[in-house]
Amino acid sequence: MNWSSLPEIWALIHPRRGILLLGIGLMAINRVAGLVLPGSTKYLIDDVIGKKQQKLLLPLVLTVIAATLIQGLSSFALTQLLSKSAQRMITDLRKQVQAHIGRLSVSFYDANKTGALVSRIMSDVEGVRNLIGTGLVEFVGGLMTAVLAMGVLLYINTVMTLVAFGVLILFALFLNKAFSTIRPIFRARPKINAEVTGRLTESLGGVRVVKGYHAEEHEESVFAGGAQRLLDNVLKTLTATSIMSLSGAMLMGLVSAVVMYLSARRIISGQMTIGMFFSYSAFLAMLIAPVFQIVAIGTQLTEAITGLERTREILNEAKEDQDPRRTVRLGRIAGRVEFEDVHFSYEAAKEVLHGVSFVSEPGTVTALVGPSGSGKSTIIGLVSAFYTPTQGRILVDGVDLSTVQLSSYRTQLGVVLQETFLFDGSIRENVAYARPGATEAEIMEACRIARVDEFAENYEKKYDTVVGERGVKLSGGQKQRVSIARAILADPRILILDEATSSLDSESEALIQEGLRYLMRGRTTFVIAHRLSTIRRAEQILVVQEGNILERGTHESLYAAHGRYYDLYTKQYAVETNLFLAPGEGDTLDEDGKEGAGGSGGSGAALPEALQALRNRNV
């Protein structure tokens, strides 16, 4: 037993102590009734049969029947009472763990696989049923039976009982050592199971990537390796429990042989009757039987405690709103966001933002541009309060965001991410997710503005059409329109658009630009985008590179400065219009802003007149 787990075990049992005490009471009745049958053996053999006292037969039989009936009814009541209570406890614990995990920080999710967390919620709590279910009570009942049987055995013959008890003590010491050995194996099993489940979840979720790269055999190999590790763990536990069972069988044989030898000598000398021998043997079996129960139930309890410890690890993780500094509750905000010398690191000694400072005034658009890995998404994550600066401050309407109660802030935050996430529900449910209490008219208006109606109306079930897991039944553009409608319905004060139109072709983007303009109107908006039209409208453009703000200003001022922004802008524009260029006439730009083949240094000065006219028309 790991004594450090006792507080958690008590915390789990304490609310259900009444049920547990009632179960133990029923178990006591059950075990006392169970003593009647072996106890009657002596009277049946010595008195009814040996002394031919037939008048005792009927009362003896009726007593045995009554005891058996009591034993059966108490067993039924125990199963109904404790098993159902255990299942309710598992459900309550699952809800508690899920609610706790849901309130942990984004950094926790960054460090843990989704499948592993699902395993924590669904699998780790399964074994704890034995802490309040029949497992613990059966264990207590077995000990109770052993104590009662021990008392009767001492009464019948003290010497033989002490010899048998000495052997049992030796076996108990062996079991204690065995369980201390087997416990780490049990502790490793849920971890392995979580890893295998996590990888399997990823594989199933990314089935299109797996099939696209013909990687089925690789995934089969990865899963087979994990399944084999799990099998090896299970086989180790089975070997250990088998050794304990073998030891128990050998123990029973040894004790039986000793009792047989001593009893035979006493019967021959007239110190023990045959009835007493049979009765003693029956009570001895009741003393030894709990030893076998300890092997089975002790294994279950060890597994339960292991699951409880892993559950405790999760519940001990601090919720993101448990920070004692977060005491300020925001009212309706204007939306002024200020970064003051903000530094941030995902890992120690690996700083990704270095003294970032800027101000976004209420109702303005701040665009973040720069190569991949420059820190744009990190800035967005800090604005969303997914992370807290390691140094410096982020102020919202003059209030330090690290002191703000997150619920009061995030209800005024709207997010449209590059990787649009939709739940496996209807179009209507996904749009209404932002504001479950919204009216049908408000939902339909948001869908109209985001141009969701243009494809939803074509489905047979219209807005009740189920989009599938992660919106798989919709195109990328359609999913983003639903995401934008969701943000419109939320009516946020601060809006984040992370590549919100990245999955749209030019025609689809043009259709929802009106929706985006409506969504951005009067809201403090942060945009990560390379679509020129969105950047051109921004009141402030921040050029981010290697965790620093390299340049800032409007499109016109930055373009005129012929700096890094000018370079990125002209190169990225050339990519969008490369279809109209003859070989060698323009530049190409990869996703990191690097020149491709045919580049001319990115000056953009040699753009043909027709291309210049196209740019002016498009942007």
Task: Tell me what you see in this structure.
With about 625 residues, the chain is an alpha/beta fold. The chain folds into 3 domains: about 5-315, ABC transporter transmembrane region fold (Up-down Bundle), CATH 1.20.1560; about 335-560, Rossmann fold (3-Layer(aba) Sandwich); about 565-619, no CATH class. It has helices at about 5-15, 15-35, 35-50, 55-100, 105-110, 115-120, 130, 135-155, 160-205, 205-210, 215-270, 275-315, 375-385, 405-410, 425-430, 440-450, 455, 475-490, 505-520, 530-535, 555-560, 565-575, 610-619; strands spanning about 335-345, 350-360, 365-370, 390-395, 400, 415, 495-500, 525-530, 540-545, 550-555. The chain has a 6-stranded mixed beta sheet with strand order 6-7-8-3-9-10, with helices on both faces. Helix 19 (about 505-520) links the parallel strand 7 and strand 8. The chain is elongated, with a radius of gyration of 36 Å. The model is unreliable at about 580-619 (pLDDT under 50).
Please tag this protein with its features.
619 residues; alpha/beta; ABC transporter transmembrane region fold; Rossmann fold; 3 domains; six-stranded mixed β-sheet; 10 strands; disordered C terminus
